[in-house]
Amino acid sequence: DAKTTQPTSMDCAEGRAANLPCNHSTISGNEYVYWYRQIHSQGPQYIIHGLKNNETNEMASLIITEDRKSSTLILPHATLRDTAVYYCIVRVPSYNNNDMRFGAGTRLTVKP
Amino acid sequence: NAGVMQNPRHLVRRRGQEARLRCSPMKGHSHVYWYRQLPEEGLKFMVYLQKENIIDESGMPKERFSAEFPKEGPSILRIQQVVRGDSAAYFCASSPPGLAGFAKNIQYFGAGTRLSVL
Q1: CB-CB under 8 Å, A104 with B42
Q2: Do the Cβ atoms of B106 and A42 come within 8 Å?
């Protein structure tokens, strides 16, 4: 699996967009980019995933560069409840090896 | 549609006792994953099971830990003769069967069981 690099921590003002970067320069053609987050003391929560096209859902947008070596998760209007650790994971979905490999993630703090 | 249910939420054991952690996947999900999170650390994969089968247990400690997912009932993570180093949050996740689940590789997590070993 491709290695991912994320900043250790970031701050964001409430109501502003939070842009969380992720580098995955060794990503292979069949690897997807997944984002999860973990709010303090809770189980991780799936946010969004993509292969090569930009994706948007009710929670966030995922922007993947054309060379796929990096991506950005965008929370368009961050709230205090978005304070969490955000994990970027690169993985090939397969039948026999379907676990998620969580790194250290980015600790996002949304401030009033 | 209930989510992934884990119980108990908190479990206290003395050294040498056994801990049994239960996980009921989301309705219709037949794939279960167990993860461990030590204090101030990230989640580490332990084991991946399908009904009655262990698919990947590469993250499981070789001794004292076992997991099962019977045909009927919840998945069980069992820790025998617990030690203080087993104190952690244990999370279970599930995903749906079939190509859709694999292609998306989306896992839905429970709230976790926090094990404290005295």
Answers
A1: yes
A2: no
Phi-psi region of B104 (alpha: psi -120 to 50; beta: other; left: phi over 0): alpha
Angle (nearest 5°) at CA B97 between B93 and B99: 120
Structure confidence by residue, pLDDT tens digits, A30-47: 888 999 999 988 999 999
Instruction: Tell me how far apart the alpha carbons of residues B79 and A104 are, in angstroms, rounded to a whole number.
Output: 26
Question: Residues of B at the A interface (Cβ-Cβ below 8 Å)?
Answer: 4, 31, 33, 35, 42-45, 48, 55-56, 59, 89, 91, 93, 95, 102-112
Contact B31 A98 (CB under 8 A): yes
Residue-wise pLDDT tens digits, B49-83: 988 899 889 899 999 999 999 999 999 999 999 99
Cis peptide before A93 (omega within 30 of 0): no
- Residues 6 or more apart whose Cβ sits within 8 Å of residue B107: A44, A46, A98, A100, B33, B93, B94, B95
Q: Which residues share a beta bridge with B51? A: none
Going from the C-alpha of B10 to that of each of A48, A99, A110, the distances in angstroms are: 30, 24, 29
**Does residue B33 have a pLDDT over 60?**
yes
- Contacts of A58 by beta carbon, 8 Å cutoff, 6+ apart: none
Tokens of B53: 């089968």
